[in-house]
Amino acid sequence: MNLSEQEIEKKIIDVLCSSLALAPGQINRNSRLITDLGMDSLDFLDIMFSLESAFNTKIKDREFDRVLRPDKSEAALRAEYLTDSEIERMSNILPALKEASLKEKIPRNAFFTFVTVDTLMKMVCLKLQTQ
To answer: Range of 37's domain?
Structure first.
């Protein structure tokens, strides 16, 4: 599937609008899915399934789980905040996380709030490039 970045962005925004009952003008690439668009964990699952259907590919897999999840080692799980190495690993997909970490420590349970529309764009583009 050869789509332009604009076509991919439009499909993603269409899915978000449909799933979250929002108008396209309420969404931009920097919109955070949770804090700006009001998404919850069930919405995220619905959106991922809808994106996989729209782009005819499996988007979220082990590789993305590895990139999008904090370290699950016992030592890391005892830490209250994300480590620099976790932030660095996740910042390619979550650039807002890196920016925020320069200002303050990021609680382990808050990383998901940094997922943006641009994050979805990167996930989809990477998957489509590897097909």
So the answer is: 5-129
**Taking CA 81 as the corner, what is the angle to CA 111 and CA 102, rounded to the nearest 5 degrees?**
75
CATH of the domain at 108: 1.10.1200.10
- 92 pLDDT band, cuts 50/70/90, is confident
Give the pLDDT score at 67: 59
**Rounded Cα distance, 51 and 59, in Å:** 8
Rg (CA), the chain: 15
Nearest to 46 by CA among 26, 67, 9, 18: 18
Per-residue buried b or exposed e for 5-38, using 16+ beta carbons within 10 Å of the residue's own CB: eeebbebbbebbbebbebeeeebeeebbbbeebe
pLDDT at 21 exceeding the cut of 90: yes
